[in-house]
Design brief:
Blueprint lengths: L2 E5 L3 H14 L4 E6 L3 E3 L4 H6 L8 E3 H6 L4 E4 L2 E5 L4 E4 L4 E3 L2 E4 L4 E2 L20 H16 L4 E5 L7 H16 L8 E5 L15 H11 L2 E4 L2 E6 L3 E7 L5 E8 L2 E5 L2 E2 L31 E3 L23 H18 L12 E6 L4 E7 L7 E6 L1 H20 L5 H9 L13
Parallel strand pairs: 1-2, 1-9, 2-5, 9-19, 11-12, 11-17, 12-13
Antiparallel strand pairs: 3-4, 6-7, 7-8, 10-18, 14-15, 15-16, 20-21, 21-22
Organism: Rhodanobacter denitrificans
Family: Belongs to the SQRD family.
Pfam family, one: Pyr_redox_2
């Protein structure tokens, strides 16, 4: 019997728990270590921030859902990982031994890297977590009483640009519905070298598509932007040229602002030689396995993936959505193989499928694989994307509630579209 411990109960952790338990069966123990009992569907947080969803709409009790599949849940996050001892220390003082460790913690939000950034000790809002998005909605309601300039964007080092674009565009939609848009000048600030770069060097004509949307909605933008500091009602930004040299200084007034920060690894793993890189992201090989500690696997935003390309202002590569599911299926197959004495050969495709809501429309991006060069890349827009994202939210919440992470109809639809989780010939898809 093997004991598998999973750190994190978000998209990656919950999916990993179900897939690993299904792969290994009742003879092996699977334990999820979370921080709070609530699972949150992170992609819906921009809607929560505008008041289009309530937290209860996008959350469910993780412990109860896992228990129905004989998966243990511990409501106390890890305080330290000791991979040389096969041990996890919890914040409540307990210690967990493991045969296999799966790290799916998500990131630490590095608001502290920019003075004045963030919803706790700073002056900007966030939609990175559901509690942050709830606070953003509360601040937005106050803003509506006295509307004025808005700044939305993604800071230097950010690796998740989609929610910033989504928030700007659905905010525009909401303000137009309220007949307040004419009182709200909007600026989009991003570390990307151009609109639609997305940390991926673009996806299809993402540049033209998103520039057109911003232009039609009268949203100005500043690319190659480094946020220097944020004050109570002004954001100070340095715009740099293609060589990273200062080009122009901007002092952007705002009454409301939402900015996606850079990420780092969580405190429990930072600084462990051989496990993580200097930013605290978990080092993995093509099998989602740590090269130094062979019984440690990882998936999601917490893994170390180098930037797709050098940019004048640092940008990271996104590690979310279908890419997480690809990683999870791969590590589940490889843990099973290792337990059975077979080589761990499964490799993730890292295919990217993104549905970005624009309030009254939407954009769909597909990159196969996510990192260039690609076999397939395209971007499409239309009202159907908005409807598809609404449907996907309900569908994914049901998957987490029932524990069926790969329904038969999803498996065959994805296969018909040529979108696989694991590279052909390396493991079960």
């Amino acid at each position: 019997m093997s004991d598998v411990v999973i750190l994190g109960s978000g998209l990656g952790g919950m999916s990993a728990a179900y897939e690993i338990k299904a792969a290994l069966g009742a003879d092996h123990l699977v334990t999820v270590v979370g921080e709070g009992r609530q699972f949150s569907f992170t992609p819906s947080n921009p809607w929560v921030g505008i008041g289009w969803r309530q937290p209860a709409d996008v959350q469910l009790d993780a412990a109860s859902a896992l228990a129905r599949h004989d998966i243990a849940f511990i409501d106390s996050p890890a305080s330290a990982v000791r991979p040389a001892d096969n041990l996890v220390q919890l914040k409540d003082g307990r210690e967990l031994k493991y045969d296999y460790l799966v790290i799916t913690t998500g990131p630490r939000l590095a608001f502290d890297e920019i003075p004045g950034l963030g919803p706790v000790d700073g002056h900007t809002q966030s939609v990175c977590t559901t509690p942050h998005a709830t606070a953003a909605w509360q601040a937005y309601q106050e803003f509506l009483k006295n509307p004025g300039p808005v700044v939305v964007g993604a800071a230097q080092g950010a690796s998740c640009f989609g929610p910033a674009y989504e928030f700007a565009l659905i905010l525009d939609t909401d303000l137009r519905r309220r007949q307040l848009r004419d009182r709200v000048p909007m600026t989009f600030v991003t570390s990307e070298p151009y609109i639609g770069h997305m940390g991926l060097g673009g996806i299809g004509d993402s540049k033209g598509l998103l520039e057109r949307q911003l232009r039609q909605r009268h949203i100005k933008w500043i690319c190659n932007a480094r946020i220097d500091k944020v004050e109570d009602a002004a954001m100070h930004v340095t715009e740099v040229d293609a060589h990273g040299q200062p080009l122009e200084q901007h002092a952007l007034p705002f009454r409301y602002s939402m900015v996606i920060p850079a990420f780092t690894g969580v405190a429990a793993v930072r600084g462990i030689e051989g496990l993580v890189n200097p930013r605290g992201f978990v080092l993995i090989d093509r099998h989602q396995r740590n090269p130094g500690f062979r019984n440690v696997f990882s998936a999601g935003v917490c893994v170390a993936i180098p930037p797709v390309e050098a940019t004048p202002v640092p940008t990271g590569a996104p590690k979310t959505g279908f890419m997480i599911e690809s990683m999870v299926s791969t590590l589940a197959a490889n843990i099973k193989a290792d337990i059975e004495g077979r080589p761990a050969t499964a490799e993730a495709t890292w295919n990217a499928v993104c549905l970005a809501d624009m309030g009254d429309s939407g954009a769909a991006f597909v990159a196969l694989p996510q990192i260039p060069p690609r076999n397939v890349t395209w971007a499409r827009e239309g009202k159907w994307v908005h409807l598809a994202k609404v449907a996907f939210e309900k569908y994914f919440m049901r998957k987490i509630r029932t524990g069926n992470t790969t329904p038969v109809y999803e498996k065959y639809v994805m296969k018909a579209l040529g979108i696989a989780r694991i590279r052909p010939g390396t493991g079960d898809e």
